[in-house]
C-alpha cells in the first residue's frame, strides 16, 4: 500500500495575518505553569512579562485515546482566554449540531459492522459541516480555533489503522473539502497500553460515556498502528507538528504545550 501523507490544504479566503516565524531560546515554565515564558508572540496579551499574539491561529490536537488531548486543549483554551485571546474550542467528530448526530453513529459500540469506507465518509461529512459552519467563519472573524482532532486523524485511523488507501483519503480531502491548514498540530504521544488503560479507567469510573467506546474496543494492535501512523505523519511534516510526550504528568505536558504555542510568532 502506498501511503500519501500530505493532504494539500486549500488556501482559505480568510483574514490576512502575519506569517509564522519561530524563535529559539525558550525556557520551559515550571510544571505548575507559572514560569516565565521567553517566547514573544506579536499581539497584545501578556504572559509572564511576555506577549501572546492576539491575531488568529488554527491549532489542532491529535493523539491516541487516553493521551489527554481533551484535558490539555481545555488548559490551552483557558490560558489563552485568560490573556484576552478570542478563542473557540471545538472538536471532530461532533463540532456542530449535525456533527453530534454523526458522532453518535460513529462511536456507538453497537455499530461494530460499519464498513471502513462508510466510516471514512461519515468523518468526511462531519468535517465538511464543521469547516463550513465553525472553522472558517471563526477564523474569518479573527478568532483562534483550537480543534480536538482533524484531518490527520483520518490518515492515522482510516488510513494506517483501517488500511484504507490514503490516496482515496487525500482525494476526498482535496476535491470535496475546502480544508484549512492548521498553523500548528500538537501530537500527544504515548504507548497505547497506557492510553487505553487510562481511557477504560475513565469509562469504568463514569467520567466518560461507554456509549462512545467503539474505538476503545479495538485491539491494542489497532491503536499501535494509529500511533505509528501519527508519528509518521509528524515526521513528514516537522514544520507543522510538535510531538509531546504525553506519558509525563499533566502539568508538565501543559507547560510544554503553552511553551510551544507562545513560541509561534
Ligand atoms: P475522540 O474520543 O478523541 O473525540 O475521538 C473519537 C474517535 O474518532 C477517536 N477514537 N478513538 N480512539 C478517533 C476517531 N476518529 C477517526 O477515526 N477518524 C477521524 O477522522 C477523526 C476526527 C476521529
What secondary-structure arrangement, pairings included, does this model have?
Blueprint (H helix, E strand, L loop, with lengths): L44 E3 L2 E3 L5 E6 L5 H14 L4 E5 L5 H11 L8 H25 L3 E5 L2 H11 L4 H10 L8 E6 L2 H14 L14 H17 L4 E5 L4 H13 L3
Parallel strand pairs: 3-5, 3-6, 4-5, 6-7
Antiparallel strand pairs: 1-2
Bound molecules: 3'-azido-3'-deoxythymidine-5'-monophosphate (ATM).
Summarize, please.
Helices cover 43% and strands 12% of the residues.
Task: Characterize the structure shown.
The protein is α/β, with parallel strands linked by helices and about 260 residues long. The protein has one domain: 3-Layer(aba) Sandwich (Rossmann fold). It has helices spanning about 70-80, 95-105, 115-140, 150-160, 165-175, 190-205, 220-235, 250-260, and strands spanning about 45, 50, 60-65, 85-90, 145-150, 185-190, 240-245. The strands form two sheets. The chain has a five-stranded parallel sheet with strand order 4-5-3-6-7, sandwiched between helices. The longest helix is centred in the middle third of the chain and has 25 residues, at about 115-140. The radius of gyration is 18 Å and the shape is globular. The N and C termini lie far apart (about 40 Å). Mean pLDDT is about 80; it is low at about 10-50.
Measure the end-to-end span. Answer: 38 Å
Can you count the beta strands? Answer: 7
* Portion in beta strands: 5-15%
Tell me the number of helical segments per DSSP (H or I, 4 or more residues long).
8
SS-based structural class? alpha/beta
Tally of separate domains? 1
| Order of helical and strand elements | EEEHEHHEHHEHHEH
CATH level-two architecture:
3-Layer(aba) Sandwich
* Rg, nearest Å: 18 Å
Percent of residues in helical segments? 40-55%
Q: From the 3D structure, determine the CATH topology.
A: Rossmann fold
- Ligands bound to this protein structure: 3'-azido-3'-deoxythymidine-5'-monophosphate
CATH superfamily: P-loop containing nucleotide triphosphate hydrolases
**Which shape, going by the Cα principal axes?**
globular
Can you tell me the residue ranges where pLDDT is under 50 for at least 5 consecutive residues? 12-51
Query: Biggest sheet, strands in spatial order?
Result: 4-5-3-6-7
**Top CATH class:** Alpha Beta
Mean pLDDT: 82
Largest sheet: 5 strands, parallel
Amino acid at each position: 500500500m502506498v501511503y500519501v501523507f500530505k493532504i494539500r490544504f486549500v488556501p482559505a479566503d480568510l483574514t490576512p495575518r502575519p506569517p509564522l516565524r519561530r524563535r529559539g531560546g525558550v525556557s520551559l515554565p515550571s510544571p505548575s505553569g507559572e514560569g516565565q515564558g521567553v517566547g514573544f508572540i506579536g499581539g497584545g496579551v501578556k504572559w509572564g512579562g511576555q506577549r501572546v499574539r492576539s491575531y488568529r491561529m488554527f491549532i489542532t490536537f491529535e493523539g491516541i485515546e487516553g493521551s489527554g488531548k481533551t484535558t490539555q486543549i481545555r488548559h490551552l483554551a483557558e490560558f489563552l482566554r485568560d490573556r484576552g485571546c478570542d478563542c473557540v474550542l471545538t472538536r471532530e467528530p461532533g463540532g456542530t449540531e449535525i456533527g453530534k448526530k454523526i458522532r453518535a453513529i460513529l462511536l456507538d459500540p453497537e455499530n461494530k459492522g460499519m464498513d471502513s469506507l462508510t466510516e471514512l465518509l461519515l468523518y468526511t461529512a462531519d468535517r465538511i459541516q464543521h469547516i463550513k459552519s465553525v472553522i472558517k467563519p471563526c477564523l474569518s472573524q479573527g478568532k483562534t480555533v483550537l480543534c480536538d482532532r482533524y484531518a490527520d486523524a483520518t490518515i492515522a485511523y482510516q488510513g494506517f489503522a483501517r488500511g484504507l488507501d490514503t490516496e482515496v483519503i487525500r482525494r476526498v480531502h482535496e476535491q470535496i473539502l475546502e480544508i484549512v491548514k492548521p498553523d500548528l498540530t500538537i501530537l500527544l504521544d504515548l504507548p497505547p497500553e497506557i492510553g487505553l488503560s487510562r481511557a477504560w479507567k475513565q469509562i469504568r469510573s463514569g467520567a466518560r460515556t461507554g456509549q462512545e467506546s467503539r474505538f476503545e474496543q479495538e485491539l491494542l494492535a489497532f491503536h499501535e498502528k494509529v500511533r505509528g501512523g501519527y508519528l509518521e505523519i509528524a515526521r513528514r511534516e516537522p514544520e507543522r507538528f510538535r510531538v509531546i510526550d504525553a506519558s509525563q504528568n499533566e502539568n508538565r505536558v501543559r507547560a510544554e504545550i503553552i511553551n510551544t504555542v507562545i513560541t509561534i510568532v
